[in-house]
Amino acid sequence: MPREQERTRSHQAVDGLPFVPPREEVSVLSRRVLGINAVFHDPASALVVDGQTVACAEEERFTRRKHGKTPVAFSTWELPERSARWCLEHAGVAPAQLAAVAYSYDPRLALPRSPDVTADTWESLRTLYVERAPLFLKTALPGLDPGVLRYVPHHVAHAASAYLAAPFPACAVLVLDGRGESASHLAGWARAGELEVLAAQRLPHSLGLVYESLTAHLGFVRASDEYKVMALASYGEPAFVGELRSAVHSTADGGFVAEPLAWERFAPAVASGGPLERVHADLAASVQRRLEEVMLDLAAWLHERTGERRLAMAGGVALNCVANSRLWRESPFEEIWVQPAAGDAGTALGAAMYVAQSLGDDVQPMPGAALGRGWSDDELAGWLERAGVVYERPDDVAEEAAETIARNGIVAWFEGRAEYGPRALGHRSLLADPRDAANLERLNDVKGREQFRPVAPMVLLEYAAEIFDGGPLPSPYMLFTHRVREPWHEQIPAVVHVDGSARVQTVDPAEEPHVARMLRAYERRTGVPVVVNTSLNTAGRPMVDDPRDALECFGSAPVDLLVMGPFVVRRPGSAAAARASAREVLAG
Predict the structure, then answer these.
(1) Domains of the chain (ranges plus CATH)?
(2) Which of 41, 158, 205, 497 does the annotation list as catalytic?
(3) Known catalytic membership, residue 427
(4) What confidence tens digit (pLDDT) does each residue in 124-157 have?
(5) How far apart, in Å, do the first and last CA atoms of the chain sit?
(6) Which of 109, 86, 99 is nearest to 26 (CA)?
(7) CA distance 412 to 432
(8) Full-prediction pTM beyond 0.85?
(9) DSSP-based helix, strand, coil % in the chain, nearest 5
């Protein structure tokens, strides 16, 4: 078969896609659906009850292995046993009460055997692992009926995590990632909760895999550190984009070509942790630019086919906030919504929503990203007592945090339920003063990460349009970049990236009252309604999740104040501790 004919056929809708479970009358007990992702990376669980999302959690938050990875190859297939048990316990659901377990991979759609013996071995093992999922689940969740397992195609799960979770009654849907069973992309049209698949790009063509391979070439961890490449791209010029266009380009029928690239012809490979040169930044900028251009083409095709004004996105590529923002500015779509856990972790929620919808539930949009574990005030006090640390319960922790930040201290902020997805959104965050440019380097040192990486601004929603433009507002999930307006460059230099942009999180007081109160307290002191927000973790570690994690991070990192629910812990000798001592003397 001629190469072009083969390629054209390769991006048509994948056989068997989408898998639609038959609609059926169900009992009350059958309205509890557990979603599972356990195939490539980011194992996770999600629980949907009566069409409502009640719990979502990534396994890494329990095991403390980032992205579910260990030194053992392909160990990312681990079943998310702890997160699944927590989801059920949180909702008071026994495994036997589940109507369905939705698994975000369908082995029936996997690619046929490859001539590459090594690849064939791993793919065969992957498929075998998924086929035996009922047995693994029965062991992990005693009492579960293995017969309730339903396989949902990987990209359908991604798509459902967007169109069913989004606040839209109808929308176009775009999924882009590294790979699924046999595809790397899905374009669809969602109406009344149903998905019509319009195109699906067949492997080996994959925009996500192109970006992954560049990530590895630059000395980073593939399927993990792609956001570092995005940050590095801002330091370079797209000097090689012209040469990339012949290998990576869209086609007229909703698909694309993404040929393997020999990166050495552009820039030498970088060893892990090795030095990066300008040519590496130029290569990153070139691939980033080409990704954006192809995404714009795909969005234009999808808009022409659907006529929709709204687009919902998911898949690992949808975590590329620079590309998302260019789509918002230049594509025909007026509104773009990206699922906050757009990577593979989000397929747990998408699979659960998809099956719940197929069972007849009225599936509701996700209520926000704070869907993980949380603790009561009494439970937090118990953790602090057992840790043997000196802690206080001030009248208002928001005021304490704002005072510390305004005096250029660093605050670890642990409040409410953990975020679902890779972004810290004011529940597991490190906060600092944006007025001091040195705080960018300082926070990167605290976290032990590369100095070219930016930190993000958290801003009160009512001030966002005054300070930022060039991206959608509100932007509660930190999935778009915005330009910082010139008058503010000098006022908040710590959060202005080298290209003048910032990855903004807007805070609506109605949705995040505690965070908003802290921001208002900081604004009263400084006149600035913005603070630095970065994830509460150190390099190579997952985001802090439970109180033990928070105390360990506070104990090992140079942080001045730990806010844990209504309590605060001050580092001895810090400015925060000195202020507290001064207040005690004055009160005495």
Answers:
(1) 17-165+344-358 (3.30.420.40), 207-338 (3.30.420.40), 377-587 (3.90.870.20)
(2) 41
(3) no
(4) 777 888 888 888 899 999 999 999 999 999 999 9
(5) 88
(6) 99
(7) 9
(8) yes
(9) 40, 20, 40
